[in-house]
Amino acid sequence: MKRTVHLITFIMLSALAMVCATSDALAQVNLSGMAPMSTDSLVKSRIRYFSPGAGGRNKVWDFSEKLSSWGSSKVTFMKDSTGVLYVIEPGRISRYSATPGMLILLGSESSLEKREYAVEKVSKRFPLVYGDSLAMPFRCEGIYCGDHPFREAGTTTVRVDADGSVVLGENDTIRNVLRVHTVDTYSVCMDIDTAALDTARLTQVIDERYEWYLPGSQYPIIEDVTSTTYSNMDVIGTTRRAWCNLPEDLTAFYVTADDGEGTDEQEGFPSEDGQIPDIIHYDIETTGKVIHISYDLDEDATITTVVANHMGFLFVSRQWTQEAGQGYSAQIDCNGLRPGVYILYINVNGKVYSEKVTL
C-alpha cells in the first residue's frame, strides 16, 4: 500500500514538474527582455485550422488532439545593438521595437516585397490584461517585385478577449493563459497617387487573428488566422492557417507528424468555403444606419461581424456566441458613418460570409 501511495505521489509530482518546466520554458520568450546581440528560437509547426471558440473567463482550451503537423520551420529572434528586434522566418524577416510595455511592427521584407510602416503598427501592449483593448490606424509604404510601389492603410484593433488554461497533453495543463483577438482591416493600393485611392484598383483585406499567450511570454504558443481578400469590395477568397510555437525539445514531445496534406486548411484562391457546410442561414436588411441580421443556426457558433469601408478602415466590430436555434436577430448600429457602400464581414466558426451594404 505504501509503495502504491509513493508511486502515485511520484507520478503526480512528475506531471506537475513537467507542467512547470513547460510553462517556464515557454515563458522565457520575452522579446523585450532579450539583451542586445542575443538570439532565441522556437519551432513553428503548421497545424490544422480550428474554430477558436468563445471568449470569456476561465476557459479551457484542449489542444491535445489538435497538435498534429505536416510541416515546421524555425523562428529565430535576434536583437541588434540598437535594440531593434528581428523575427526571422523562412522567406520573411520582420522588424519590431520591443519594450516591456509595447510591441511595434516597424517593417518587413521577403523575396517579393519590402514594406516600411510610415505610421507604426502597434501589435501588442504588455502586460496583457483580460478586457484590455486598443484600436489604432496604421500605414505602410512598400515595393513589390523591386519596382511596383504599393501602400497599405487601415486599422488594427486588439482585445484580450479570454483567459483560462491550455491543455497540451494528458495531465499537462498550463494555467493563466490569455487569448488575444486581433482584427486588421486595410486597403492595398498598387499605385501611390491620389486618384488611385478612389478607384476600383483598391484591394481590401480583413484579417482575424487569435493568439494564446503564456504568463511572461511576448510570443504566442498558438496562432489561428483567417484572412479574407476583396477586390473593389467584392470577395475574392479566404485563407485559414494555424500554428503551434514551441521550443524544439517540447515540439518533439507534444507535436506529432501528420501524413495528410492539410486539406481542411482552406488555403488558396478562389475561396473553398463551399467545402465547409453552412451552419448559419441569414437575411440582411438596413434601416437608415442600422444593419439588421435575421438568422438561424444549425450548431452552436461564435460570430464576428465587421463593417469596413472601401479604404479598408474598420468602423464597427462585434462578437458574440449563440446556441443552435432559430429566429435569432442582431443589430449593428452604424450611426455616425458617412453615407456610402460598406463591407459587412461575418465570420461563423471560421467560415466567412461577406455582403455589400449601403448605409
Short description:
The chain is mainly β. It contains two helices and 21 strands.
Keywords:
mainly beta; twelve-stranded antiparallel barrel; 359 residues
The SSE string, one letter per element, is HEEEEEEEEEEEEEHEEEEEEEE
Label the structural class.
mainly beta
**Beta strand count:** 21
The percent of residues in helical segments reads under 10%
The residue ranges in which pLDDT falls below 50 over 5 or more consecutive positions are: 1-21, 262-274
Rg from alpha-carbon coordinates: 22 Å
Beta-strand fraction estimate: over 45%
End-to-end CA span: 74 Å
The total count of helices amounts to: 2
Categorize the overall geometry: globular
Widest sheet: strand ordering: 1-3-4-5-6-7-8-9-10-11-12-13
Describe it for me?
The protein is mainly β and 359 residues long. Helices cover 9% and strands 58% of the residues. It is built from 2 helices and 21 strands. The protein has helices spanning 2-27, 248-254; strands at 39-47, 56-62, 68-79, 84-89, 92-99, 102-110, 113-125, 133-144, 148-169, 172-189, 203-213, 222-231, 234-246, 256-257, 280-287, 290-297, 301-308, 314-322, 325-333, 341-348, 351-358. The chain has a 12-stranded antiparallel barrel. A 4-stranded antiparallel β-sheet has the order 18-17-20-21, with no helix packed on it. The chain is globular. The model is unreliable at 1-21 and 262-274 (pLDDT under 50).
Strand-helix topology:
Elements: H1 2-27, E1 39-47, E2 56-62, E3 68-79, E4 84-89, E5 92-99, E6 102-110, E7 113-125, E8 133-144, E9 148-169, E10 172-189, E11 203-213, E12 222-231, E13 234-246, H2 248-254, E14 256-257, E15 280-287, E16 290-297, E17 301-308, E18 314-322, E19 325-333, E20 341-348, E21 351-358
Parallel strand pairs: 2-9, 3-14
Antiparallel strand pairs: 1-3, 1-13, 3-4, 4-5, 5-6, 6-7, 7-8, 8-9, 9-10, 10-11, 11-12, 12-13, 15-16, 16-19, 17-18, 17-20, 20-21
